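[Q] Does anyone have a clean structure-token version of this?
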Amino acid sequence: MDSLKEKFEQYKHFSILSYYIVIAILYHTYEKITIPKYFMYSRLDDYIPFVKEMVIPYLFWYIYIIIALVYLGLTSKKDFYNLCAFMFIGMTICFIIYALFPNGQKLRPVIHGTDFFSRLVAYIYMVDTPTNSAPSMHTLDAIAVHVAFMKCDALKKKYGILTLSFITMVLIILSTVMLKQHSVLDLIYGVALSLVLYLIIYKFNLLDHFITERSYHKIS
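[A] Here you go.
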């Protein structure tokens, strides 16, 4: 029992991930109630090709986040909390923006193919309506994960891992516009929001005011 209690104390910080329940509720609620008043479009969107194979990095976004949360949660509480703050604050801000400026896009092509990639894209189009697109959460969270990896002391000299993470981040961001899930504007707004959050969390050390050094010591 003592061992289980120690393990619980050691990893109880994972409980913060319960905020994903709030995110999920907000996402499904907004999917049902949002009626876009503003449609995101840039002339650059016309020059970006639709590439159905980009559905792979688009979906890998979920795995990318899980890998980061598990790894950092097991190795560094500080980096784990910073990543959670980056993503959760960022996504919450996104929902506030969606409420104040209900937006969407009209870029999606009609999917005629029946191959594996086409079916995946068609499924995404079916379950994820072209609403609440700006800022892009895919962009925001992909940047948050890569920044967290770069800031992690255990990974600072792991150039292979950091390079792979950077490539993954770029592919995920590109996938949002190459699948016509987002406009270039959504991507730009996602990057802009990420920059603000980066400055607040990593430069101004927002979390230092709420979490003691003891609470995010490196996990042994």
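[Q] Thanks! Anything notable?
[A] Residues 2-216 form one domain.
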